[in-house]
Automatic annotation (TrEMBL), chain A:
Top-rank taxon, per record: Bacteria
Main location: membrane
Stated name of the protein: Cytochrome C oxidase
Entry membrane topology: Multi-pass membrane protein
From TrEMBL, chain B:
Protein name from the UniProt record: Cytochrome c oxidase subunit 2
Ranges annotated as spanning the membrane: 6-29, 50-71, 91-116, 137-158
GO CC annotation terms, alphabetical: plasma membrane
Reactions it catalyzes: 4 Fe(II)-[cytochrome c] + O2 + 8 H(+)(in) = 4 Fe(III)-[cytochrome c] + 2 H2O + 4 H(+)(out)
PROSITE patterns reported for this sequence: COX2_CUA, COX2_TM
Keyword Transmembrane helix: yes
């Protein structure tokens, strides 16, 4: 009965919504509609991706063309280009730091989870909105505020934070050590506090919504894998972001109030500081307790999206639905016990290193299972290459390429040499950066028709995909070689060292490839904004997909379904079911109406289903009587 | 270089023109019909075939580039090994490369081959194949087994590398600061003297505590000179922020942490002279770089290691003069008994 009650309440809530009319501010700005909030996250995420990408182009210019006269950038960068036309070294580090921070947190956490968890959770589980629309709105505006603060730090005279996105103290604690650790770092910390608050509010909402607001019949075993991934991502975020908050808070204390959590025995700028007894390694433990789960926070939603898109466009059920869920659960749990693999040579006890090496290589197993399941889903499918499908396949490729190098880095003996070299840069850009980015793109191409009621142009999508797919490999694959050769990361230039003096040509190549790939993203931008207004009007279910969002009207109002929320009678992956005439059976089609395609165990459920439907009928009658 | 920029500009121009062109076609298509380009139309369009073929082309082209470049450049990215444990870790590296390489190639062949082979065909229908527990178990267990083997061999190497240094290891202290390294040798007693960061000043940049008798024979060196074939222990610390000692040819890396001294021991296997022969580079030097971001000069923290024969090492070692000899002021405030010892050392070294 509880289920039924929820749905009647939903109906009431919806009637209320129809009564008031949204004005511009409540519709587009301080909206509590999860769909609009999702779009706000998306557009903001795209904005940040452009900024983050542009910063990487700036430092790639430096790395690819170390001798270049950058005076032409002076109108933009002002004093950061010195009289001789070369980039300031502190500013180089600031660029790298901002690039990493922006990409990891603003683009691939907020831009990805924020967009799709918000947009898809209520639509795919059959809910009117998030559990708390108001908190959802706050979540976006905290993110926005966080962005404003981070953005303004770019314009400080002393520059933004420059100690790397991992902000290891003492560098990040001492202004004497690098100018970016002054005001820049302060703003970084404030921005991240708002960001964490935003993520937590979002996460709490995603979790409660998934647990409490599923429509009739939407059991956990019938949730699309997208929802499973968003759900588990939110759980990870909820458990790990507070730890970053604690780490940041202690850093604030060390910076401003003279405590010594992370600082000890420092002599800098001609004076011995009073701090003793702290440990920089403590910070690293706290940071990576978030930092590693963070990798899965950006990756899992992308994998969820890919599962959905691959199944739909292979016209095949996702292979191993249960195994996919179990692997994601495994990844969720294990992601909390591998953090110190980032610290094998930090000076921590080598025995800990051994433990973390074992745990780390265990986490490779569920990842491998996922890859094999994707491959088997493609096998004997009937593949339709929509742009979303191409990006999904690209993601699988990056996930393999980047995942395999993780096996090197997780092995502490091998990591001695590879740690903090370009091998690491190659690894995480493929497995985390590019894979998640492709998940984001995949999601945008796939759900654009639902978001905006119009289609994006396919041909432009194809060109965008091939340019980006080839481009990403050309940018990041060569970095493996440079890394094996020992080139350290976060280097302004390598010419000081004989062992790292080669590969100027390869670095130039990488930079050119990066510029072309970055430029290629404007094709997407054009397609995105143009199609938003001028694209062809989308049909209701353009990809002939099973999930609930395609049962809403073309432009769903606040509340998503004009009448009752549809009930769900089957899992979301009944594609090409033998016996069925169509090659897809939406989740809303009762088993009792498809006797020709039901499997033996499904036949048994038909009677149960009839009982539920009868109950539903009563409720409808009761509603009408009111 | 400007050629590149010009090429880039051209590319931009072309893509803009092309976009404008597309824009026009888009508009005209819009006017013509409201017919939607949905899945139904994509699957029968030529694009589906083109994309499928492109995946195969990509597989072949990328596969070729990968093999060609990996073999052609092998000698360039593979740094010669100059330490005993380096041979072990490199061996592990290449074993892992072989194992993952096979998986990398196989899975990619499957990925792109399936994409090509199972492209949409009007008369076909996808197989309804939702699960197979036996398969899932196989591909859980097999990777688990392979990984176990890799981990255990890695763990054994790691255990040996991080084991306590042998008693007779030559002790060298490396101190990182913005933006250079300083080396200190333990002297004849092979015991480094104590230090305290509060003692650091212009004449005592390492904060050495000269009231500790072990410090009296400690000396500094511009180059880190070490004997081939004998164990060497680096005691690593930092004065201001994090740094990391990275000696790429030695396959050695360890963070330098303020407030927490760290260590790494190893056995060099080739002298600098031998390496000069091997690489054919008469200027070859072993280098130490910093691999933990530490500020603007992070990319320029270089120190040279010179590996010599044990005999040469002994000779060099005997020629070095302790701190207190170079700068007798350092012992000015010592208690009387220590001062006596110190003065004897100074005399001996004259
Ligand atoms: C336009 C595409 C991109 C290019 C050309 C690029 C290039 C680079 C390079 C060369 C570095 C290393 C800089 C150094 O160590 O000196 C770097 C750092 C980094 N990138 Fe990217 N990147 C791109 C996109 C991304 C994306 C999508 C992500 C999202 C995960 C990302 C995350 C990071 C992170 C976390 C760092 C480390 C920052 C640090 O060292 O503190 N990047 N990037
Ligand atoms: Cu990690
Ligand atoms: Cu450094």
């Amino acid at each position: 009965m509880a289920v039924v009650n929820t749905s009647t309440q939903g109906a009431h809530a919806h009637e209320v919504h129809d009564e008031h009319h949204d004005n511009f501010i409540t519709k587009y700005i301080f909206t509590t509609d999860h769909k609009m909030i999702g779009k706000q996250f998306l557009v903001t995420g795209i904005f940040w991706a452009l900024i983050g990408g542009f910063l990487s182009i700036l430092f790639r210019l430096q790395l690819g063309f170390p001798e270049m006269d950058m005076s032409f950038l002076r109108p933009l960068l002002g004093g950061w280009i010195d009289e001789t036309g070369s980039l300031d070294q502190n500013f180089y580090l600031a660029l790298v730091t901002m690039h990493g921070t922006i990409m990891v947190f603003f683009v691939l956490t907020a831009g990805l989870s924020g967009t799709f968890s918000n947009y898809l959770i209520p639509l795919q589980i059959g809910a009117r909105d998030m559990a708390s629309g108001f908190m959802n709105m706050l979540s976006y505006w905290f993110f926005f505020l966080s962005g404003v603060i981070m953005f303004s730090s770019l314009f400080l005279a002393t520059g933004p934070a420059g100690g790397g996105w991992v902000i290891y103290p003492p560098l990040s604690a001492l202004e004497q050590a690098i100018p970016g650790s002054g005001m820049g770092m302060t703003l970084w910390l404030i921005a991240m506090v708002f960001f964490i608050a935003s993520t937590l509010m979002g996460g709490i909402n995603y979790i409660t919504t998934v647990i409490n607001l599923r429509t009739k019949g939407m059991t956990f075993a019938r949730l699309p894998l997208t929802i499973w991934s968003f759900f588990l991502t939110a759980v990870i975020g909820l458990l790990s972001f507070p730890v970053l908050f604690a780490a940041a808070l202690l850093l604030v204390f060390d910076r401003s109030f003279g405590t010594s959590f992370y600082l000890a025995d420092i002599y800098i700028g001609g004076e011995a500081l009073p701090h003793t007894g702290g440990s920089p390694v403590l910070f690293q433990h706290l940071f990576w307790f978030l930092g590693h789960p963070e990798v899965y926070i950006v990756l899992l939603p992308a994998l969820g999206i890919t599962s959905e898109v691959i199944a739909t466009n292979s016209r095949k059920p996702i292979f191993g639905y249960k195994a996919m869920i179990i692997s994601m659960l495994g990844i969720t749990i294990l992601s909390f016990v591998v953090w110190a693999h980032h610290m094998f040579v930090s000076g921590m006890n080598p025995f800990l290193g051994s433990i973390f090496m074992f745990l780390t290589l265990i986490i490779a197993v569920p990842s491998a299972v996922k890859v094999f399941n994707y491959l088997t889903t493609l096998w004997r499918g009937n593949l339709i290459f929509t742009p979303a499908m191409l990006f999904a396949i690209g993601l699988v490729s990056f996930f393999i390429s980047g995942g395999l190098t993780g096996i090197f880095l997780g092995n502490s003996a091998i990591d001695i040499q590879l740690h903090d070299t370009y091998f690491v840069v190659a690894h995480f850009h493929l497995v985390m950066g590019s894979a998640s980015f492709f998940g984001l793109m995949c999601g945008v191409y796939h759900w654009f028709p639902k978001m905006f009621g119009r289609m994006m142009d396919n041909k432009l999508g194809y060109v965008h995909f091939w340019l980006t797919f080839v481009g990403v490999y050309l940018v990041f694959f060569p970095m493996h070689y440079i890394g094996i050769a020992g080139f350290p990361r976060r280097y302004y230039s390598w010419t000081n060292f004989d062992f790292a003096s080669g590969y100027a040509d390869l670095n130039m190549f990488v930079s050119v490839a990066a510029i072309i790939t970055f430029t290629g993203q404007f094709i997407f931008l054009f397609n995105f904004f143009y199609s938003m207004y001028k694209g062809r009007v989308a049909p209701l279910n353009p990809w002939r997909s099973n999930t609930l969002e395609w049962t809403t009207p073309l432009h769903p109002g606040h509340g998503n379904w004009p009448g009752e929320i549809p009930a769900v009678y089957r899992w979301p992956y009944d594609y090409s079911k033998p016996g069925s005439k169509e090659d897809f059976i939406p989740q809303t089609v009762p088993l009792s109406s498809t006797p020709e395609s039901n499997l033996p165990h499904e036949e048994e459920m038909v009677s149960l289903e009839k009982a539920i439907m009868a109950e539903e009928g009563q409720v409808l009658v009761a509603n009408e009587a009111k | 270089m400007y050629g590149f920029l010009i090429a880039l500009g051209l590319l931009l121009l072309v893509s803009i023109i092309w976009m404008v062109y597309r824009l026009q076609t888009l508009v005209s298509v819009m006017k013509e019909s409201e017919k939607s380009k949905t899945q139904a139309t994509i699957k029968n369009s030529g694009s589906n075939k083109v994309n499928a073929v492109l995946f195969l082309v990509f597989l072949l082209a990328a596969g070729f580039l990968f093999f060609w470049y990996s073999f052609k450049e092998f000698d360039n990215y593979q740094l010669p090994i100059a330490s005993e444990h380096g041979a072990v870790t490199d061996n592990l590296f290449w074993i892992t490369t072989a194992v993952t390489g096979v998986i990398f190639i196989l899975t990619h062949i499957l990925l792109f081959w399936f994409s090509y082979r199972y492209q949409y065909q009007e008369d076909k229908r996808a197989a309804y194949y939702p699960d197979n527990n036996k398969l899932e178990i196989i591909w859980t267990l097999v990777p688990a087994l392979v990984l176990t083997v890799l981990v255990i061999s890695g763990w054994r190497a790691w255990k040996d590398i991080t084991a306590p240094a042998p008693e007779n290891a030559h002790v060298v202290e490396i101190l990182g600061y913005q933006f250079a390294w300083e080396a200190r040798y333990a002297g004849k007693d092979n015991q480094l003297g104590a230090f305290d960061y509060r003692l650091i000043n212009a004449t005592n940049s390492r904060g050495i505590d000269f009231t500790d008798a072990n410090s009296l024979d400690d000396f500094e060196a511009n180059k880190i000179v070490i004997p081939v074939g004998e164990p060497v222990l680096f005691k690593i610390r930092a004065r201001d922020v994090l740094h990391s000692v990275f000696a790429p040819h030695m396959r050695l890396k360890m963070d330098a942490v303020p407030g927490m001294p760290t260590r790494f021991w190893f056995v060099p296997t080739k002298t600098t002279a031998e390496m000069r022969d091997e690489t054919g580079n008469p200027e070859f030097e072993y280098e130490i770089a910093c691999t933990e971001v530490c500020g603007r000069g992070h990319f320029s923290m270089k120190k040279i290691i010179e590996v010599v024969s044990p005999a040469e090492y002994q000779k060099w070692f005997a020629e070095q003069t302790p701190f207190i000899v170079q700068n007798p002021d350092l012992i000015a405030d010592l208690p009387a008994d220590l001062k006596e010892v110190a003065e004897i050392i100074i005399k001996e070294n004259k």
